[in-house]
UniProtKB/TrEMBL annotation:
PANTHER family: PROTEIN MIZU-KUSSEI 1 (PTHR31276:SF6), PTHR31276. It comes from the Eukaryota. GO terms for biological process: hydrotropism. The lineage of its organism: Eukaryota, Viridiplantae, Streptophyta, Embryophyta, Tracheophyta. This is Protein MIZU-KUSSEI 1-like. Coiled coil: none annotated. InterPro entries: MIZ1-like_pln (IPR006460).
Amino acid sequence: MVIGTIFGNRRGHVWLCFQHDRLATKPLLLLELSVPTHQLVKEMKFGLVRIALECTRPEFRSCPLRSVPVWTMNCNGKKLGFAARRKVSERNRQMLKTMQSTTVGAGVIPAGVGSPEEVMYMRANYEHVVGSANSESFHLINPDEWEGQELGVFLIRSC
């Protein structure tokens, strides 16, 4: 199990972060998605979200899957641009520190607390599944068997 946090400014892009635990300062994976926050929120209203990140570039065939720097992004079968692996910036670190006390939940962090704009977020436990050297996935674990949001993130290398 890992902790997954999706966050972004209302008018900005989405960030996706997976950590071994909520207090970890170095994420397992940090991605900036090209999809605007409001568009992902709209997709999430339907309860089922599948984010497929695919690497098709042969030059990244030999690197570890989570080290691939750029991905083609599909959400619920629609191509929505790209995702890029990022190093943690001071702003990201401050945002994750602000959310350290949150184990699971969703909400809005007011402007001025680590960001000049309001930041929308969703944090939950995810099951991390390694299928092979070319496929991994993260599946949202709903608390208390609640049939609410269903979200999966898939990393696939097809080159």
